[in-house]
Fold:
Amino acid sequence: MAVQQDESRAAAAVAHPQAHLADDDLVEREVIKHSAALPTPAESYRRTELTLPIRAFEGTGPVVTSALTRRRRTGESPVEFLVTMTTHVPGGTPDGAVDEIRAREAAHSRMLAAEGRLLRLWRPPLAPGEWRTLGLFAADDAEALETVLAAMPLRVWRTDEVTALAPHSNDPNPPVRGGAGAPEFFTEFTLPAQEAPEESFEKAVAGEAVRTRELAGQGHLVRLWALPQQPGVSRALGLWRAEDAAELQTILDALPLAPWLTVRTTPLTRHPNDPATASTTA
Structure:
């Protein structure tokens, strides 16, 4: 009981992103693999993955659109999901077939962005031959999201790992946009539960909330989400902007809760079909 109470309290206040996680090039033939110092997206999010059944849904477009519309009309926010999309083109597939699906995927992604279902697209670090994209989606629920993903042209060659993202009390939650081109990063924070929190920890939790607001105001902290929790720890995902990895590390090291946190950082590259990029260049 003490562990659960402490997890809830820490999850509500942590400023480390203890959060509240198509295309012309979406179809690139490169694929990304993290360097030895970084986990691959699959490794980073495997523990939080939701395995959704791959099945056909009827009413693909209208059903999800009406669900999102109902939520907005009633003041409810859509659920956000981080999707790791990995594409494997079968050997021997003609280049023309790849290009055709690539063009359809780009057009379909623009449609999803216009409907408010696709919010962001990024590329994690890629190794030669990999093809992986990270996407931020909004949907009424997991089934509605699966409807969206199953209708994407690249799904014929793609597997998806889905992580449901919960609201975080310290989430700046601004309109989703790409900013002035500063590099972006994901950070996954793990905070062990404190059986008997010391005064220093209590002060750090309070200071973390204050510091979160400051970093959001400076444009460094973009979003915070709560990740599915695990026994004995609280976890969160943050989206950050910084000039480079060194600047981000300086920011993270100065967080009030830094002495208690384990942090995994993934550098992101802007995807050509990222809705945020499209909105800032339009």
Notes: The beta strands are 31-32, 79-87, 118-123, 126-127, 132-139, 158-167, 184-192, 221-226, 233-241, 262-270. Residues 1-67 have pLDDT under 50 and may be disordered. The first helix runs from residue 2 to 13.
